[in-house]
Write a structure and sequence with these properties.
single chain; about 150 residues; SH3 type barrels; alpha+beta
């Protein structure tokens, strides 16, 4: 009873936003640009095996675009990816983006809103690579979806 009351009375407050100098803000922006360039250099298309089908999910293997950097992938044993589809989507940008990579077996679209964390063990062969411009659009779409 006491614990329930304590939980009800618990107030969560957001931390105050950090105030940084103009010099520090510029430094952070440069650091972010470097990380962004590294990110753009590592994204690639892979085939991933997924477990049991749930609700509207596709069962079996499906292609994904790996977004996370190799350092993260190796240390965590997982990748962060977005789903690909060969079915022409009804929704346009920011929910989907057509890929121009001709090495893919079929014309493909990125389903930007379908973000997944997958084990490295689920990854199959490399299918292709997204261009830097396409990755910029994908990140832009993610930012629009999450309201950043």
């Amino acid at each position: 009873m006491k614990r329930e009351k304590a939980i009800k009375e618990l107030k969560i407050e957001r931390p105050r936003r950090a105030v940084v100098s103009e010099k520090e803000a510029l430094k952070r922006m440069k650091d972010f640009s470097k990380r962004k360039e590294q990110f753009l250099a590592t994204a690639n298309n892979r085939l991933a095996r997924e477990s049991a089908k749930l609700d509207k999910e596709q069962s079996g293997s499906r292609p994904v675009l790996v977004l996370s950097q190799n350092v993260f992938n190796e240390r965590s044993g997982t990748v962060i990816a977005v789903a690909l589809t060969s079915q022409r989507p009804g929704a346009g940008f920011p929910l989907t983006l057509e890929l121009a990579d001709k090495s893919l077996p079929k014309k493909s679209w990125v389903k930007i809103s379908q973000i997944r964390t997958l084990s490295l063990q689920r990854l199959g062969k490399k299918l292709g690579k997204a261009s830097a411009e396409e990755l910029e659009h994908i990140i832009e779409g993610l930012n629009e979806i999450i309201g950043a």
